[in-house]
Amino acid sequence: VKLETILEDELALEWQLDYPPVEAQTKRDLIQGYTSGWKVAKLAGLARRVVTELDVHDSYLVDLTELLATFDAGGGVEGPTKNLIFAANGPKPEIRLRDAMNNDIEIVKNAEFCLVYDQPVPTEGLQFSRLVSWWRDTQCIAADVGDRDVALSLHDRLRASLDSDVERVVFDAYQARYKESFDIPALVPQVYLHYDPYDRRTRRSSGVAPLSRQRMDFLLLFTDRRRVVIEVDGKQHYADGDVASPRLYAEMVSEDRRLRLAGYEVYRFGGWELFGSGATARVEEFFDDLAARMK
């Protein structure tokens, strides 16, 4: 079987260069023509597909599996992303396990108050362009509507889920980056990290400690493993009313430790940082530095 056939038919890759594949001089040139401009995470995803999907003798996979092991050792969250429930703007959704063996869930009540991204997150992460395409499909938006109009519709729905002005400062600062390209990680707001069917008051009254931080303020999936949590801290994170609460602060930092040990990166903005004329510039600088670090 020709290499070109495997790349196009079995792996469904698209040729990236302005001359046809038949003019490639070597196999290396041919592969580079299909993967031109790819970042390391996307190349790792292709390597995983070669290992798992193609009928290749084990002797040819030794070097490739070693490279994948080295890539995986770089850190991040183990296991694929499933059940991305986000942009909650109303009552908590009621969830049941439809298939406990596969961890498949079903929202049986209040589904209209949240979004559920039900597609696999690719190795290169969840880019805004992919989220826009998903939104077009789920909302049945006609093909003749431009991507920017679809993106604006999605933007409005995501922004409606934000609880405070300081969260909107972070969200709006990042949305400005989409003007240059949709092919960057999507900033996903109000993401359910844990789920407890009971509220905190019910849990405490029964003598069971409630789950900490059921929702994250924002999530960025730079790859399927490199997941960045961004939290915006109002005083409710560390005070009961106007009185400092060591208990609330301890719960917050304890949950941060747990997330970091699980492979997430966690960054926090204090609410005070996000007031005043320099707030947007401060957030933009953070996102510039974060993007540079993730390259």
Notes on the structure:
With 295 residues, the chain is an alpha+beta fold. It contains ten helices and ten strands. The strands form four sheets. The protein has a four-stranded mixed beta sheet with strand order 5-6-7-10, with helices on both faces. A two-stranded antiparallel ribbon has the order 1-4. Helix 5 (128-138) packs across helix 6 and helix 7 packs across helix 10 (279-294). The longest helix is centred in the C-terminal third of the chain and has 16 residues, at 246-261. The two termini are 35 Å apart.
Chart the SSEs and their pairings.
Blueprint: H1 3-10, H2 27-35, H3 40-53, H4 62-72, E1 84-86, E2 94-99, E3 104-109, E4 115-117, H5 128-138, H6 147-159, H7 165-175, E5 187-192, H8 200-205, E6 215-221, E7 227-233, E8 239-240, E9 243-244, H9 246-261, E10 265-270, H10 279-294
Parallel strand pairs: 7-10
Antiparallel strand pairs: 1-4, 2-3, 5-6, 6-7, 8-9
Task: Explain briefly what this protein structure is.
Helix content is 39%, strand content 16%. With 295 residues, it is of the alpha+beta class. Strand 8 and strand 9 form a beta hairpin.
The largest β sheet comes out as:
4 strands, mixed
Summarize model confidence as the mean pLDDT.
Answer: 85
The helicity comes to: 25-40%
Into which percentage range does the β-strand content fall? 15-25%
Class computed from helices, strands and strand pairing: alpha+beta
Head-to-tail CA distance between termini: 35 Å
Task: State the total count of DSSP E strands.
Answer: 10
Specify the number of helices.
Answer: 10
Low-confidence stretches: none
